[in-house]
Amino acid sequence: MLAAFADERLGYGERVVFENLSLAVRAGERIALLGRSGSGKSTLISALYRRLADAGARVALVPQDHALVPQLSVFHNIYMGRLDRHGALYNALNLIRPFRRERAAVAPLAEELGLAPELMRPVERLSGGQRQRTAVGRAFFRGGDILLADEPVSAVDETQARRILESMAARFATLVLSLHAVDLALESADRIIGLKASRVVVDAPAKALTRGDLDGLYAG
User: Which of residues 119, 142, 165 is at a domain's end?
Assistant: First the structure.
């Protein structure tokens, strides 16, 4: 068991989102979180990240807001996935003039994500889809056993989304992804957790569900 919540209250600030959440995430699972905006997906991703990180798990995160530094390049934002592996002086020098070995390490990820032409371009000059892929690249560069991602492919087309999801599955043993597209969730996940009004209303193997079974998550 990687993480478990047992009748727990979760939220942010003074706002309570989940009153009595019971949920477990096991190693090797590929979980898709589905539900309308405000159903609690982001809260659950954040809570999972804190719990796993506090337990010392090797976890990478793609937050919904990307958490990029707009003035810095795609290269530097991806490189930030490994900031904690070097000292402050090394990181400062790499900021001023990127080391050849670090560029060589980041470049294949940028190529894979279609960002090679933008590698040294400031993130603030990118499109929404390019920024999203930069945040994914940072998580890939971070690496680890677990990837938590909040709407990581919402700003790219369906073909790119499938390719990115395949790359995620190839790199991380365990995935928990908040997705906006039901069809993508059914294709890429082995377990679907459906949230509605801050409650878990679906928790089942993806192969046992159809799109019709999940339509109720978005009704009302």
Answer: 142
- Is residue 114, in this structure, part of any structural domain at all? yes
Overall pTM surpassing 0.90 (yes/no): yes
Range of the domain at 115: 69-142
Pick the closest to residue 136 from 126, 125, 151 (CA basis): 151
What are the tokens at 34? 């589905």
Q: Are both 137 and 157 inside the same structural domain?
A: no
pLDDT digits (tens, 9 = 90+) for 86-103: 999 999 999 999 999 999
Q: pLDDT digits over 166-213, tens only?
A: 999 999 999 999 998 999 999 999 999 999 988 999 999 999 999 999
- Say how many domains are in the chain: 2
Last residue in a domain, options 110, 142, 174: 142
CA distance 39 to 105: 38
**Residues whose CB is less than 8 angstroms from the CB of residue 51 and which lie 6 or more positions away in sequence, other chains included:** 3
Q: How far is CA 21 from the centre of its chain?
A: 21
Mean of per-residue pLDDT scores for the chain: 95
Distance of CA 197 to the CA centre of its chain: 22
Residue entry with tokens 């999203």 = 132
Helix 158-171, helix 128-142: angle, nearest 10: 10
Burial of 170 (0-12, 13-18, 19+ CB in 10 A): exposed
Bridge partners of 61?
Answer: 148
pLDDT surpasses 80 at 143: yes
Residue pair 113/133 in contact by the 8 Å Cβ criterion: yes
For residue 12, what pLDDT is reported? Answer: 83
